Amino acid sequence: MLCMAIAVLIGCDRSASTDSSVVEKQTAATEAFPGELKLDSLTKLLDKDPSNTRLLNERAKVFLEVDQVNLALADVGRALLLDSSVASYYLTISDAYFRLNKPNKCKNALLKAIELQPDYIEPLYRLAQFELYLGNHQQSINYANDMLRIDARDERPFMVKALCYKELGDTTKAIQNYLESVTENPDNYDAYVELGILHWAKNDPLAEDYLKSALDIRPNGIDALYTLGMFYQNTDKLNEALETYEKILKIDSTYSQAYFNMGYVQYEYLQLYNEALENFDKAVKVNPKYYQAVYMRGLCYEAKGDVAKAKREYSYAIELNSNYKRAADGLQRLLSKM
């Protein structure tokens, strides 16, 4: 989930603040256009009014959309030279600095936005995510609490706090905050998935209910399906587990972990070695470096009594990962038998 911290720092501004008000009416139509068309339209408007800071900031955001970070920085930098009092411009320049891997400048820009407009929730959100990304959990929680003092109905600070508490190992507080989040936003798919994961880790049957709630929101949510499959697998509901992994593969036939887990269930619990081999083969075909699946093929061959092929698979697993102890133990076991 840490990737969320990265994504949010280059995300859009959800604030309704007057300081980040909508670009002038003449630019509103550009919002419906893809990046290049928006750039063309904004450039024509700026040719007529080159000192329009809102147009400059808007074009900077579009440059970020099309991954032209230096041009974005130039535009928003000019906007701030002309008018350094608009908090939303500092959000744009913080996005550019983040893309350029300048975390200190990124953070300072967000702090400047809050200094200019203390009730501006967006820079607080990004700072909360930024500190989470850096592993500064208490600081992240503090910024999230600042958000809640501005808007107690915003589900995002609860998500931030839940992630912090999860990383800190405080499962109870993590669950409390995820529940607060879904109370404010009943369609929060990610919160239901996390609730499912946390309850699954506790062997709590509520995990199934939360994961099914996530799938009610997003029926093809692979992370929810995969966790549900693992829940079924670990609670000996093997048919349900296999059916769930098959659903994943209908959505994404390249999801190698689903092939692996199907093979594992067939090998470990059902002793269906040929069927297991087929699924481990598919996992390796999708991901040729999947050394765990190669090792499992060795176990299948060993169970079938084919020592030569088992030895070949264990050796190949070690070739893929020289530190893989299980494969080394398997190879040693075969050599001792021979």
In short:
With 338 residues, the chain is mainly alpha-helical.
Architecture overview:
This protein is mainly α and 338 residues long. Helix content is 75%, strand content 0%. The chain folds into four domains: 33-117, Tetratricopeptide repeat domain (Serine Threonine Protein Phosphatase 5, Tetratricopeptide repeat, Alpha Horseshoe), CATH 1.25.40; 119-185, Tetratricopeptide repeat domain (Serine Threonine Protein Phosphatase 5, Tetratricopeptide repeat); 195-252, Tetratricopeptide repeat domain (Serine Threonine Protein Phosphatase 5, Tetratricopeptide repeat, Alpha Horseshoe), CATH 1.25.40.10; 253-338, Tetratricopeptide repeat domain (Serine Threonine Protein Phosphatase 5, Tetratricopeptide repeat). Helix 5 (69-82) packs antiparallel against helix 6 (87-99), helix 13 packs antiparallel against helix 14 and helix 16 packs antiparallel against helix 17 (273-286).
Please write out the topology:
Elements: H1 3-9, H2 25-28, H3 35-48, H4 53-65, H5 69-82, H6 87-99, H7 103-116, H8 121-134, H9 137-150, H10 156-168, H11 171-184, H12 189-201, H13 206-217, H14 222-234, H15 238-251, H16 256-268, H17 273-286, H18 291-304, H19 307-320, H20 325-337
Helix pairs in contact: 1-8, 3-4, 4-5, 4-6, 5-6, 6-7, 7-8, 8-9, 8-10, 9-10, 10-11, 11-12, 12-13, 12-14, 13-14, 14-15, 15-16, 16-17, 17-18, 18-19, 19-20
3D shape: elongated
Count of domain modules: 4
In percent, how helical is the residue content? over 70%
Termini separation comes to 47 Å
| Class based on secondary structure composition and strand pairing | mainly alpha
Arithmetic mean pLDDT: 90
Strand content: under 5%
Low-confidence stretches: 1-32
Radius of gyration, whole Å = 26 Å
